[in-house]
Design goal:
Layout lengths: L5 E7 L3 H11 L4 H12 L10 E7 L2 H13 L6 E5 L8 H11 L4 E6 L6 H8 L5 E5 L4 H41 L1 H10 L3 E6 L4 E4 L1 H7 L3 H5 L3 H11 L4 H7 L10 E6 L5 E11 L2 E11 L1 H15 L9 H18 L2 E9 L2 H8 L1 H18 L5 E6 L2 E9 L2 H13 L5 E3 L2 E3 L3 E8 L6 H17 L5 E3 L5 H20 L2 E10 L4 E13 L3 E3 L5 H7 L2 H21 L6 E5 L2 H4 L4 H12 L6 E6 H4 L3 H13 L2 E7 L6 H6 L4 E4 L1 H5 L5 H16 L3 E4 L5 H9 L4 E2 L10 H9 L2 H14 L1
Parallel strand pairs: 1-2, 1-3, 3-4, 4-5, 16-17, 19-21, 21-22, 22-23, 23-24, 24-25, 25-26
Antiparallel strand pairs: 6-7, 6-10, 8-9, 9-10, 11-13, 11-16, 12-13, 14-15, 18-19, 18-26, 19-20
């Protein structure tokens, strides 16, 4: 790949995690291989992902980013695109930064990354002027929107760059052809006819001096029109063929051809053709004696630009408008409603339990379901209404020209009816429901941000009522946001107050029928709510950045406990600890684990780190981290194997010790033939790669017997008992027969 095929992108944001997000979102090296291996593993076809190649540089402050851009320009290197945060205290804000960037290179495409409360588009225009290379990306943003913007704007930058180069080349061509007129009319004619463009020469008296055959064939000019030698006849003929001739002819009808400046206009013909008309003064001995018009067929390029614009404002999966298109439609609805004194409604729609579809049936099935949902929703609304997909399983409907709430209810009922019939996905019936939140203009807000935020709050209230529910916004819903803030503060205090503790879930060797490892599971002893499971607080911890210190605490506590058991003379076993993607993104993870092992004096072979396969495939740095961890001597296991995007090449190349088959596959043993096939395939694959394999979520003797029959190494699940406290785990290690006794009790309950 040539260097010119790589687009340079600058990310200027004072949040380093944003730098990492952009790099992960726009990194494409392993996407095609990942798609292919997924198909090989699960027997499904997969189209390769195709994105441009990006080289991403980052800066934490505006001045730093501008300095990097200037340094690159001094070396003749141009950035195609810059993502600029609007607020970067204490230095320049986004507006000031962009001004400095454009002082260096006015052609850089700019995306302002901003929260809802930042500068409005009107304020931004007032500060920067109306630019065609400026867009706003609202935070929080999703992967699809960022990729679409990056693809569209870098391609637009390249097209503009090519156009500039073409303009420069064409200007030189026209100058050369003008000089040729002085030497030989025949040479000029030859040059005219050899050009792939259509060329027309008009003198200062408005007479057609010359033209080539391409201008005749491309613009379909009748010969009698040209024979008149009058430019008025030529332009009159063109006027009848254009879709919107007014703007173009404001320039053409200007009889003052004394300007030295060339001009370019894009004209659209009724027959679907699009031409670029380049006009250049015709000079002889530095005196303007006329004008030269050069027509180039850019139909294909114009179509591509239109497609790129569509991609930048529409969801690639469903074809619906994305966040950019939605906000544009909402602003139009606000202006129209103010003018016509009519109301409109925002409906925030979220699919219920959609994650279950992805986890149990695959992401391909989930994508097909999203497409079908989009089709049904589109049919349920009027042409004047707006439907957009924000990302994931979230849709927004803008119901315009609503007279009263009764009419709104009728429209909402049509949306609900769209889910009455099951969806047929790959010959499987899938029943789906949705949670809807509604906000009304102007009662519930007068701006895009407020209306969308309140509709979102109402939707979450509907979700809290177990979904398949409609909720209209009410002011008291804002208190929910306050409760979420309180939960965040409680979680931060929990770290300082040491309110977390660990439970231990045994992992058994099915051949030797003994405990070989204990998985450490974190719990929160909430002072008011009692014992909370990870699902109740880990997502919030990840969101607010507490997962790293909490994860480090869990690692240190688990290693310390395992060492204590060994010092008591108990049979040595591994302690398994889950490590999140955020922890792997920490540059000091290897050193942190080395320090913990040294502090607790636990030998590395008695520590097993569990991570999901999606974490492994997220970036090269994580892969290097895994290799460094193996050098320490710790065990590496892939958790929830089978639910992500597996890659056999990574399993073969990385120093992984064990695969943990996700419990969702185990639950369907004897009920879903496909899942049994997957389990057998994973076990066989693990054996061939000399990996141990463990089955999670074992709850019945039938499941256990199936796993034994298919030579699964280890198992874990409620069949052998619930997660144990430290005291209970110690008792089981002292009394190995206790696990068999617990399993026997479960078997008795089955009978």
């Amino acid at each position: 790949m040539n260097e010119k095929d790589i687009f340079k992108i600058m990310v200027i944001d004072d949040n380093e995690s944003i730098h990492h997000d952009f790099k992960k979102i726009l990194k494409t090296e392993h996407a095609d291989k990942l798609s292919r291996i997924t198909g090989e593993l699960f027997g499904e076809s997969s189209e390769p992902i195709s994105l441009p190649k990006f080289e991403i540089d980052v800066a934490s402050q505006g001045k730093e980013g501008v300095t990097q851009i200037k340094a690159a320009l001094d070396q003749g290197i141009h950035y195609a695109l810059a993502f600029v945060d609007i607020r970067m205290p204490p230095g320049w804000n986004g507006i000031e930064t962009i001004k400095h960037i454009w002082e260096l290179d006015k052609n850089i495409q700019i995306v302002i990354c901003t929260a809802y409360s930042d500068f409005s588009w009107e304020e931004t225009i007032a500060n920067l002027g109306k630019k065609d290379n400026l867009l706003i990306l609202k935070k929080p943003f999703d992967t699809i929107s960022v990729r679409q913007l990056a693809c569209a704007l870098t391609t637009k930058w390249q097209l503009a760059k090519d156009a500039q180069k073409y303009t420069s080349t064409l200007k030189q061509q026209v100058a050369d052809r003008t000089l040729s007129l002085q030497k030989s009319l025949s040479l000029v004619k030859s040059t005219f006819e050899s050009s792939s463009d259509g060329i027309l020469v008009i003198n200062n008296n408005g007479e057609i001096v010359d033209y080539n055959q391409n201008v005749v064939s491309m613009l379909q000019i009748p010969q009698p029109v040209l024979e008149t030698k009058k430019q008025e006849c030529f332009w009159d003929d063109i006027r009848t063929k254009l879709i919107n001739p007014e703007d173009f002819f404001k320039q053409v009808n200007n009889k003052n051809y004394t300007s030295d400046e060339p001009s370019i206009h894009v004209i659209h013909f009724k027959n679907g053709k699009t031409f670029e008309c380049y006009s250049q003064p015709h000079k002889l001995n530095n005196k303007i004696i006329g004008h030269i018009f050069d027509f180039r067929d850019i139909t294909k390029r114009a179509k591509l630009e239109k497609e790129l614009q569509h991609q930048a404002t529409h969801d690639a999966l469903t074809g619906l408008g994305n966040r950019i298109e939605l906000f544009h439609g909402m602003r139009e609805a606000i202006e129209a409603s103010k003018k016509d004194h009519l109301n409109f409604a925002i409906i925030f729609l979220d699919l219920d339990r959609f994650k279950l579809i992805n986890d149990s049936l695959s992401h391909l099935i989930g994508d097909k379901l999203l497409k079908d949902v989009a089709i049904r929703l589109r049919k349920a609304i009027r042409l004047e209404d707006t439907l957009a997909r924000l990302g994931g399983d979230e849709f927004v409907v803008v119901l315009k020209n609503i007279a009263d709430e009764t009419q709104i209810q009728d429209k909402i009922n049509k949306l609900i009816d769209a889910f009455k019939e099951p969806f047929v996905i790959n010959n499987r019936l899938v029943t789906m429901t949705a949670s809807l939140g509604v906000s009304l203009f102007p009662k519930d807000g007068s701006t895009v941000d407020i209306l969308l935020r309140n509709a979102d709050a109402a939707m979450y209230r509907a979700k809290a009522r177990k979904g398949n529910n409609i909720q209209f916004y009410s002011p008291e819903m804002s208190s929910t946001s306050l409760a979420e803030f309180d939960q965040e503060m409680e979680l931060r205090q929990a770290v300082n107050r040491e309110e977390f503790f660990l439970c231990y879930h045994p992992q058994l060797d099915l051949t030797k029928e003994k405990v070989v490892a204990l998985e450490a599971l974190i719990r929160w002893n909430h002072p008011k709510k009692g014992i909370l499971l990870p699902i109740d607080f880990i997502p919030l911890a990840e969101e607010i950045g507490l997962i790293v210190p909490i994860g480090e605490w869990a690692l240190r506590t688990a290693c310390k406990q395992n060492k204590a058991w060994q010092e008591q003379g108990l049979p040595p076993v591994r302690i398994a600890v889950n490590v999140s993607a955020e922890q792997f993104n920490q540059q000091n993870l290897v050193e942190t684990i080395r320090t913990i092992l040294k502090e607790t004096e636990l030998k590395p072979e008695y520590l097993e780190l569990e991570l999901t396969e999606n974490v492994i495939l997220s970036n090269k740095e994580i892969i290097r981290t895994i290799i460094e961890l193996k050098k320490l001597g710790v065990m590496i296991a892939i958790d929830d194997f089978g639910t992500g995007y597996s890659s056999l090449s990574y399993l073969r190349k990385l120093p992984i010790d064990r695969l943990k088959i996700d419990g969702s596959f185990i639950q369907h043993i004897h009920s879903e033939t496909d899942d049994e096939v997957i389990i057998r395939a994973v076990i066989a694959m693990a054996k061939n790669l000399n990996l141990e394999v463990l089955a999670e979520g074992v709850e019945t003797s039938d499941q256990l017997n199936f796993l034994k029959k298919n030579q699964c190494d280890d198992a874990q699940g409620f069949y052998f008992g619930e997660p144990l406290s430290g005291v209970e785990a110690e008792f089981c290690l002292k009394n190995p027969e206790e696990i068999k006794r617990l399993a026997a009790l479960v078997s008795d309950k089955e009978e």
